[in-house]
Design brief:
Helices cover 35% and strands 24% of the residues. By secondary structure, it is α/β, with parallel strands linked by helices. Strands 3-2-1-4-13-14-15-16 form an eight-stranded mixed beta sheet. The protein is globular and about 70 Å long. The two termini are 37 Å apart. The structure holds N-(iminomethyl)-L-glutamic acid and fe (iii) ion (FE). N-(iminomethyl)-L-glutamic acid binds next to helix 3.
């Protein structure tokens, strides 16, 4: 078969090879090809191989010289709070002086501060702020992003956030997968009537489902936010309506959210800095992904999740950015991966599996994303590095030079190509 596009002159191509969920010791397994090429047709991968590619080309085939780059599948950032109004730099000083994150929330700031700003923001303001962030993420090699609502906390405003993330999915080359997170905090108006807010969320789930804007529900299970039985109540209702479920679990206090997630068949349990030992064992026996977010530990100056123990016990891990205005204000996904190397003590191969195939798996995208295999989307990044280990060693700069999404070049020589997609 003749290809539309050949990316050739790839110095080293690193690729996941294990079937997801990739667990424990298998997270160290990846494939490496030297002097490789990729043949692409109709946005899909036709062949990944070495040597001669003449049989794939005719006069119409575009040839793209990778100039000795390293090639990887596009990164999949499977946890973000992309769409929100404003920022929270005013809280940074308080956090540095030791005010706990949950105390700021209790005083009506934190997430609730962003809720105010998000409710006041127009659709266009939210869209443009998120679009800019998405461009930055793309330039750092993210080709698929999960984006949660959760700063509206009423049906109208949650739908507004979800409509923004769905429009971004349509307009921007990055694939944006939306999640409903009405259970991100108890809104101020319901401070003394949390039962009523939880009842609202459960009713709103019917409208959210009917909107077709998302198929996943997330809950912030934490002291002072949603406790274990409230989380179970909301997620069981979501499941009965056909949603997949996941949760922010054991981030600050060891409530047992990870264990609950396994019991509910959650696609992922996220954060896990305070996870109980018995829940690590439970996770290892399940297909629920442990989604670790080291940027949050870095920014809040907190302990890091015990990734080594989780891998040793056989869990499947993903690593995500958790981009949000309150606990991880950065779109630099390579820095997040470098934190995983330095503070989660993960190996390059483990981090690659965690940010590609395992992330694709828990987002339900493993058939089309997460590795460079024939038939999958040609979501490909080129990096100006000599080998994979170098990506984690030379930190805090952008190594990605070129990005292809569904076979289209969208970043070339570190420049986003505006003419290939709508900019609004
Ligand atoms: O994943 N933990 C809860 N939610 C976000 C923070 C949201 C915020 O502070 O605005 C997180 O860390
Ligand atoms: Fe989060």
């Amino acid at each position: 078969m003749i290809a539309d596009l050949i990316i050739y002159n790839i110095h080293k191509l690193y690729n996941p090879i294990e079937k997801p969920p990739v667990k424990g010791i298998n997270m160290s397994n990846i494939d490496v090809l030297t002097h490789a090429y990729i043949a692409i047709k109709d946005g899909k991968i036709l062949k990944v191989s070495q040597g001669d590619f003449k049989h794939f080309i005719d006069a119409k085939t575009t040839l793209f010289d990778a100039k000795g780059s390293v090639c990887l599948p596009g990164f999949i950032d499977s946890h973000s709070h992309l769409v929100h109004g404003g920022s929270r730099e005013d809280e940074f000083e308080k956090l540095k002086q030791g005010t706990p994150y949950l105390d700021i929330l209790k005083a009506g700031g934190g997430i609730l501060g962003t809720v105010e700003k998000t409710r006041w923001a127009s659709f266009e303001q939210l869209y443009h702020q998120a679009y800019k962030s998405l461009d930055t993420m793309l330039s750092y090699g993210v080709t698929t992003l999960e984006a949660k609502s959760g700063y509206g906390l009423s049906l109208k405003h949650e739908l507004k956030q979800l409509e923004v993330s769905n429009k971004l999915n349509h307009d921007h080359p990055v694939e944006v997968v939306s999640t409903y997170m009405g259970a991100h905090a108890i809104p101020k108006a319901y401070e003394n009537n949390r039962e009523a807010y939880i009842k609202n969320i459960k009713e709103d789930l019917i409208s959210i489902k009917a909107s077709h804007l998302t198929n996943a529900v997330d809950v912030f299970c934490e002291t002072g936010v949603f406790d274990l039985s409230e989380t179970r109540d909301i997620l069981e209702t979501a499941k009965s309506l056909g949603f997949t479920v996941k949760l922010h679990a054991d981030e600050i206090d060891a409530l047992g959210g990870a264990g609950l997630g396994v019991d509910l068949g959650a696609t992922s349990v996220d954060h896990l800095m305070a996870i109980k030992d018995e829940d690590i064992e439970k996770l290892a026996k399940s297909n629920t992904i442990a989604n670790l977010l080291p940027g949050t530990s870095f920014y809040l100056n907190k302990t890091y999740a015990n990734a080594r123990k989780m891998i040793d016990e056989g869990c499947a891990l993903s690593i995500s950015g958790d981009y949000n205005p309150g606990s991880c204000p950065t779109e630099n996904f390579q820095f997040i991966m470098q934190l995983a190397a330095n503070y989660l003590i993960m190996k390059p191969e483990e981090i690659l599996n965690a940010t590609t195939i395992n992330a694709a798996y828990h987002l339900g995208l493993q058939k089309t994303k997460g590795s460079l295999e024939p038939g999958k989307d040609a979501d490909i990044i080129l990096l100006d590095i000599p080998n994979l280990a170098y990506l984690f060693y030379h930190f805090s700069i952008n190594h990605v030079t070129d990005v292809f999404i569904k076979g289209e070049v969208v970043v070339k020589n570190k420049r986003i190509l505006r003419n290939t997609y709508e900019t609004n």
